[in-house]
Design brief:
Layout: E1 8-12, H1 16-25, E2 29-33, H2 48-60, E3 64-69, H3 78-91, E4 95-98, H4 101-109, E5 116-118, H5 130-135, E6 138-142, H6 149-158, E7 163-170, H7 182-186, E8 204-206, E9 209-214, E10 221-223, H8 228-231, E11 238-241, H9 248-263, E12 281-282, H10 292-295, E13 306-316, E14 319-324, E15 333-338, E16 341-346, E17 349-352, E18 359-363, E19 374-379, H11 386-389, E20 397-405, E21 410-417, E22 420-429, E23 431-432, H12 442-447, E24 449-450, E25 454-464, E26 468-469, H13 472-490, H14 501-510, E27 528-532, E28 547-551, H15 557-560, E29 567-570, H16 577-587, E30 594-597, H17 601-608, E31 613-616, H18 625-633, E32 637-638, E33 661-662, E34 665-669, E35 681-682, E36 688-695, E37 698-703, E38 718-722, H19 730-746
Parallel strand pairs: 1-2, 1-11, 2-3, 3-4, 4-5, 5-6, 6-7, 7-11, 10-12, 20-25, 27-28, 27-38, 28-29, 29-30, 30-31, 31-32, 33-38
Antiparallel strand pairs: 7-10, 8-9, 8-35, 13-14, 13-19, 14-18, 15-16, 15-19, 17-18, 20-21, 21-22, 23-26, 24-25, 34-37, 35-36, 36-37
Helix pairs in contact: 1-9, 4-18
Length: 747
């Protein structure tokens, strides 16, 4: 935990060079990933050797190290997950960042002492589930980017004992993190598995008209450098910079700029952030949801760079005259747009005009550029040489050595590695020194560097008598043995604390294979239920599933007039406390009913309203037995994730599958939309999309994709989501659904 009054500055590291840059720039903590289960699968990431190196560096520089395990994890991957956790128990990072409740439940069962941070991918808006976080040993939550400053402050007041972390800089997703299924719906790359194809950065046409094409789902990057003063008073523990896919120059410049702002060593300098990778930037949701023209990037979804100059239209002997807005130097990389095409080069020579200091002649640009063309700098030729600032000694883990001995006894050295005590003695005895004793220099000279990976942090000689001597060869043998044992102990996890035989027996029992048999039944009767996304549903009277799931609008009477079969309800996503209290007041008078929730609010509603039944939507991403078992233990019924493929789901599992949908949902977003009802958006591959409001300011986006049939898997039950496109005839939809239902029941 950051010390009171100090906010942690947390930096990304996709490579070793980025970690060095973060340390040099003044980050308090670094987050990175191993080779598996990280939400940036295309970053460089770190193998086991690299992770050990990162741990040594962060310990040597007194910085925190957080390792991400922030993807959803499928049941068949738990063996690989256990192997990763075995290594992290040895590594002992300062925290693991997790998304999946099943992963947290496994770590708790292993009695790990590594702190857990809940990823922004878990979409915890603070309106439920606080008890579940505590029971899963989660000490910090990385908040969704969709929260405003006021909402963050309210969460700190509501949960003063919970560490809160928020993003302040970097890329924004169109969807709520962890609630995007766009990429996986169009192919095999999943945003919840670290392989997002970024469909929100693509160009889309409105109603199929090329002249209406735009990057209408592409958000500007988040940049809160000018809001640092307010954030200091927000109650946040940590300010996080996004960018594990970006290079060391980006990490260094961004961290240094925020470091200066946090330390108040000068005025915030937003322009410094333009020098490294940056799209058009905004303050995101800091002041609440913004209008579309304020959050969209426009046609340029990539790097914008810093506006450095504009062309005057004058040229001379291959030189181009510029009106200078920011100093340019030889080696600077620049780009510009020529008839809509992005072009770039590098400045090779600059000559300023003394009489007109705002103008300069440069070499490196084509002479035919029109007057007024904006020249943007993408990199500085005089960028700081980060490698030259790096001290190789920082890559050695500090080890404290405790020395003891008296005249006539062996020299002893003691230390602790990963909480394992180590004591070694020389094979010779100490004698009175003719000159200076061991404490006056020989120990420091011989034991400063301990092999390639370690160094001495402190020499503690309080228990070593003064004025003693031992041969150099004895010290050499002692050092060789010490280094050998330190290397061996580094490979071991810390010992588990068991203070009694009874506790050891209990721990052994808890670590056995968990019995999930209560979640299976070979005799269950397959059920089929239909969830309707549209707010109006005139076609329902002609279809007869086992259960309908209809939108909750405060009462049940409307549906009772239309259908007479079993009905349950889906609740609008809960983002704020007002949303939660409104739903709670609406449901309190009810004696019975079943309700489908989108997020963590399900746990608190189930506790407060025991007469009602609550389930968690498939978008909560339940995709392993540990998560299912934990959720059911809280009195809530999970619907299986749509990403958990049918062939991977254990046979006879008593839970609803969601592999089939009529126009599947691909995104939940809090960004405001200006698409009129009935509009269809199309990408260059002719995939068509439409949007529906789902309540509390959340917009859902759907892909037009109708299933040919309903696939039956043994006696498994099925939930089918239905969203009627503006181009569809509800009567025909009812006929097609009836045909599919009849075939499913007859199978």
């Amino acid at each position: 935990m950051a010390s009171p009054g100090k906010i942690e500055l947390l930096a990304p590291a996709g490579t070793a060079a980025c970690l060095k840059a973060a340390c040099l720039a003044g980050a308090d903590a670094i987050y990175l990933a191993g080779q598996r289960f990280g939400a940036r699968a295309f970053a460089g990431n770190f193998d086991e050797k690299g992770l050990r190196w990162a741990r040594r560096v962060t310990e040597a520089l007194d910085k925190k190290l957080y390792v991400t395990l922030n993807t959803i994890v499928f049941e068949h991957e738990f063996k690989l997950l256990e192997e990763a956790l075995d290594f992290y128990e040895i590594l002992q990072p300062d925290a693991l960042i997790i998304q999946d409740p099943g992963v947290a439940a496994l770590i708790r069962r292993r009695k790990s002492r590594i702190p857990l941070h809940l990823s922004t991918q878990a979409a915890w808006f603070g309106q439920g589930g606080r008890k579940e976080l505590a029971d899963l040993n989660i000490s910090r939550v990385i908040l969704p980017r969709e929260l405003s400053y006021e909402e963050i402050c309210d969460l700190h007041k509501a949960y003063p004992d919970l560490e809160l972390e928020a993003f302040v800089h970097g890329a924004m997703c169109y969807s709520i993190s962890g609630r995007c299924f766009w990429s996986i719906a169009l192919g095999s790359r999943s945003g919840n598995r670290g392989t997002c194809a970024q469909p929100c950065r693509r160009e889309y046409q409105l109603n199929g008209k090329p002249e209406n094409a735009s990057c209408c789902f592409s958000p500007k990057d988040l940049r809160l450098i000018s809001q640092i003063a307010q954030l200091r008073n927000s109650g946040l523990t940590s300010l996080k910079i996004e960018g594990r896919m970006k290079g060391p120059e980006y990490v260094y410049q961004t961290v240094r700029t925020y470091r200066e702002a946090l330390d108040q060593t000068g005025q915030p300098r937003p322009e410094m952030l333009d020098e490294v990778f940056s799209r058009a930037a905004s303050t995101g949701f800091f002041a609440g949801p913004a209008a579309p023209e304020d959050w969209r990037t426009g046609t340029n979804v990539g790097r914008e760079g810093a506006l450095a100059a504009t062309t005057t239209g004058n040229t001379s002997e291959g030189l181009v005259e510029l009106k200078i807005l920011q100093t340019l130097a030889p080696g600077d990389g620049v780009f510009w747009y020529n008839r809509g095409e992005k072009q770039g080069s590098r400045i090779t020579w600059v000559k300023t005009d003394r009489k007109r200091p705002d103008f300069a002649l440069v070499r490196g640009l084509p002479p035919g550029l029109k007057a007024g063309t904006e020249i943007r700098r993408s990199s500085q030729g005089s960028s700081e040489n980060l490698e030259s600032q790096w001290n190789r000694d920082w890559e050695r883990r500090p080890v404290d050595l405790f020395w003891s001995g008296h005249d006539g006894t062996p020299l002893a050295v003691e230390t602790i590695i990963n909480e394992h005590p180590l004591r070694l003695e020389t094979d010779e005895t100490l004698q009175l020194a003719m000159n200076k004793g061991l404490e006056d220099g020989p120990l420091q000279e011989k034991f400063t560097v301990l092999g390639e990976l370690f160094k001495t942090g402190r020499h503690v000689t309080a228990r070593l008598s003064k004025g003693l001597h031992i041969s150099g060869s004895a010290l050499k043998r002692l050092k060789r043995n010490l280094v050998e044992y330190i290397y061996k102990l580094e490979q071991l996890p810390p010992p588990r604390e068991k203070t009694s035989i009874a506790e050891m027996i209990i721990a052994a029992g808890e670590n056995r294979q968990v019995d999930y048999s209560q979640h299976f039944s070979a005799t269950q009767h397959p059920q089929i239920r239909l969830r309707v996304w549209n707010q109006s549903f005139p076609f329902l009277r002609d279809i007869h599933p086992d259960c309908w799931i209809l939108p909750w609008n405060g009462d049940q009477s409307r549906a009772d007039l239309v259908i007479h079969s079993k009905t349950s309800w889906w609740l609008a996503p809960v983002i704020t406390r007002q949303h939660f209290e409104t739903i709670l007041e609406q449901l309190k008078p009810l004696d019975s009913g079943e309700f489908l929730c989108f997020g963590w609010e399900a746990f608190d509603l189930a506790r407060l309203l025991p007469q009602l039944k609550f389930s968690l939507d498939w978008s909560f991403n339940t995709c392993n037995m540990a998560a299912l078992d934990f959720i059911r233990s809280r009195g809530v019924e999970p619907i299986l994730s749509r990403e958990w493929k049918d062939e991977r789901i254990p046979e006879n599992l008593t839970a609803f599958r969601t592999s089939c949908a009529w126009n599947p949902l691909v995104s939940f977003s809090r960004f405001k939309s200006d698409f009129a009802p009935g509009k269809v958006i199309q990408n260059p591959h002719n995939d068509k999309f439409f949007q529906l409001p789902v309540g509390n300011g959340i917009i859902a986006t759907f892909l037009e994709d109708i299933p040919a049939s309903l696939t039956r898997h043994g006696n498994a039950s099925l939930q089918i989501d239905i969203a009627i496109s503006p181009q569809e005839n509800p009567v025909q939809v009812a006929k097609d659904l009836n045909r599919m239902l009849a075939a499913f029941k007859a199978a």
